[in-house]
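Researcher: Let's continue the batch. This sequence belongs to Probable oxidoreductase, and it's 313 residues. Same format as the previous ones, please.
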Amino acid sequence: MNTTPATSRFDWHTTAADAIGGIDLTGRRALITGAASGIGVETARALASANAEIILAARDLATAAAVADDIRAGTGNENVHVAHLDRASIDALAAAAVREPLHILVNNAGVMAIPELRRSPEGHEAQFATNHLGHFRLTTALLPALRAANGARVVSLSSRAHLNSTVDFDDIDFRVRDYEPALAYAQSKTANVLFAVEAARRWAVYGIEANAVHPGAILDSNLVRHYDRTTVDQLRNSDRYTYKTVAQGAATSVYVATSPELDGIVGRYFENCREADPDNPGAAGIDAAGVAAYALDPDDARRLWDLSEQMNS
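Model: Same format as before. Here are the structure tokens for Probable oxidoreductase:
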């Protein structure tokens, strides 16, 4: 394991095309969840441009198929495929995927700010179930394919929102406390980082490198579909955030998934294509918000892993 702080020539302005420049992924397979819209599309496009075989995992097969056609036409890479991904299809997708090595897994799909308390069929709060438990189940099911790659990378998309909440192990599913959409989202994003920390520890022996990323603040995304127009306009005019394009938002995922600069770098959190510093509560504009110490806590990471296995059983 490399303990040296990661450095980078990239920054807030970097696009996915910039991050993939000069990298050849011929012979490598990549699976991206949530690849029918937003930064998932741009992540897939960048990886395809470097000649990787791409699997677009999405709920909406028709939209994903159109995206695949567009990526093939734009990159000349015919090895772009579509796979159905929802709660019921995870095991089937994993069973198909493990037939060959999987070199890159980008856990990109997510939901945000569901206005009212919703639960998965198993009874878990919907944002935690989608953003963390679903990806936990998929990634662990894909372990044989990741091991077979002899050097796979797993990228989990978190958010600066993780700074707003730890994982409340006593009430993850909001059975006691009042439901707050932003708090539930923040908890799930902390879980994404903790997952990367523990996956890195458990799977280092297999050469699997796991990290988490914050893509940046992006309004042109389906992630904000639960916001009304007034809220979106207020956010767009806020002095607190400077918003990235979708291509810029995909850059950190692409960088962490492919850069040779990060060989041996595991269990860390990146933003703006750089390893994050400790949290900066006053961050505004293009300032890096940093990472909370609790999101990197190894004890909480182990605890969450064990609990996630129970919740997915």
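Researcher: Any comment?
Model: Strands lie at 29-33, 53-58, 80-84, 104-107, 153-157, 209-214, 269-271, 274-275.
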